[in-house]
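Repro:
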Amino acid sequence: MNGPITVSELNGQIKSLLETTFSYVYVEGEISNLTYHNSGHIYFSIKDDKSTISCVMFKGNAQYLKFRLEVGQKINISGSITVYAPRGNYQLLCQKIEPSGIGELALAYEQLKKRLQAQGYFNPEIKKSLPKYPKTIAIVTSSTGAAIQDMKKVALHRWPLTKFILIPALVQGQGAKEDIVKAIKKADSLKADILIVGRGGGSIEDLWAFNEECVAQAIYEASTPVISAVGHEVDFVISDFVADVRAATPSNAIEIALPDMNEMLQYLDELHNDYNRSFTYVLNNKIQALNHLIQSFKQNSFANKFKFIEENIKSVKEKFNQAFSQQLQNRFNDVEFLKNSFELNHPDKRIKKGYVQVTKENKIIALEDVKIDDVIDLQSTHKIVRSKVLDINSIK
């Protein structure tokens, strides 16, 4: 009977057997116990409803991972089984990870979009407005691509007064995102009026550099207003959401950034016509005002004033004469009325035979007020008779 083997020997045999037998596995599971280590390694477990297995993805492979692992996420792993002999643990060594049921790039796109939106990168309140008449525009794109040629053609016909500065950059492939970030920072330092970042159309892989977080951050931190012009109208990349303005195509970016020369010429013609109309209107108003002043001056001249005063004096004189004559006539009529009244009321004309005025103690009284034994005076125009009342009889 052979003697026992050591623990290390047993673990070594297990390691050799497992790593040889399971040199390549392709497995699906749900992420749990996720840890992103400071070293760049990723430690986690995957599980189904019955089992769990430990996993590790070292920094060398993790740096190529397009999306971020999250607990509860379902993934597909390509890798191998490895044994850590000192502890006798085995784990799944991940070489490649893909999201289950969705493309890696699509998931990475949605994750980054959601994260940047939560951080306020897309807020409309922070969007910078574009100047209406930019003097200088910096463009970050490939110097050999069709996009820059299309932009030059549109700019030449639209507004040839603006100066363009091309900051060439790789727009796809290895190192593209770093090159774009460097170009954006350089363009921003030029203090141009507008910064256009973009490229022509392509596949999602071709456009991916504009979905990188470092590119989004460079656009977000730029002090120059940024137009994102990537791909075609149907293409939406992260830079479109972060930029101040999104253009459907690079050519459309120039259309957005520059005024239209033909529209401006038409506008100048309208201004010219409006000016002529306004000038004619103002001039006619001034002529009318001047004529009014001339007429007013004539009406208020000294000769007219003297004539007006003379006519007023004449009118006052005529009115005075009329009023005086009227008053004189009124007084004459009053005198005639008093004369006639006096004549009509003269005592000589009022006295009739047998009629006298009865007075008592020099006061005129009515005959009805006389009492027996009263001493009364019977007065006519020529005589006064003092009498004593002896008897009073009523006439029925």
